[in-house]
Design the sequence.
């Protein structure tokens, strides 16, 4: 069973890291792609939701290079997300804006699909839900000069695993669990060596490759 360690996670552009929320006014999410590293190849998507006080970044979705086991993902394995964003300097209203950094506690973390929907299946996507309020989470910055909000530039989220924490990847037990879930839905599944890309064509052609798990026959109760 392979694992993603804290050190490897930190190598992915400051731990998946710098999220520049260059988003349009009508956007509901901000997507930032980073130069992936060999270890995890991580990218990040911010989830923005409307509140009575305005928009807030309530979650972020990490897309990893490797599939991770859901039982290795929890809020406890992550440090507080570090949010750095543009802010008005309240000691000098007419001066230049400054960048401020504040912690965003992770209240929940779980494997998900690309839309951020929770899944119990192994996945290369992880969603981190965070506390959100007008002070911490708003991607807006009030400009005293123009008398209106503007999108923060920069708006950055830095994510780190806690010391000693790691994310479990792969492992035969994970594959067997996936096979159990898939076959219970009536679909077949094949575990095969992915080193040869042509193995996919062999599977489609029905050739005897890998280990095939036959889906259960689901009877219609009507």
Sequence:
């Amino acid at each position: 069973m392979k694992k993603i360690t804290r050190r490897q996670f930190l190598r992915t552009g400051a731990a998946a890291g710098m999220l520049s929320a260059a988003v349009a006014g009508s956007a509901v999410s901000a997507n930032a792609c980073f130069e992936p590293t060999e270890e995890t190849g991580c990218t990040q998507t911010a989830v923005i939701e409307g509140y009575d006080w305005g928009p807030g970044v309530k979650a972020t979705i990490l897309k990893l290079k490797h599939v991770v086991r859901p039982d290795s993902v929890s809020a406890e394995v992550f440090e507080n997300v570090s949010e750095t964003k543009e802010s008005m300097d309240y000691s000098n209203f007419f001066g230049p804006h400054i960048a401020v950094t504040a912690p965003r506690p992770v209240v929940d973390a779980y494997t998900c699909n690309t839309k951020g929907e929770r899944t119990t299946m192994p996945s290369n996507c992880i969603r981190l839900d965070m506390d959100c309020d007008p002070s911490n989470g708003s991607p807006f910055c009030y400009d005293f000069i123009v008398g209106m909000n503007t999108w923060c530039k920069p708006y950055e989220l830095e994510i780190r695993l806690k010391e000693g924490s790691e994310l479990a990847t792969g492992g035969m037990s994970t594959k067997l669990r996936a096979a159990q879930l898939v076959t219970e839905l009536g679909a077949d599944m094949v575990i095969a060596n992915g080193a040869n890309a042509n193995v996919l064509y062999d599977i489609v052609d029905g050739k005897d490759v890998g280990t095939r798990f036959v889906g259960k026959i689901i009877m219609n109760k009507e």
Notes: The radius of gyration is 21 Å. Helices lie at 6-10, 172-184, 199-204.
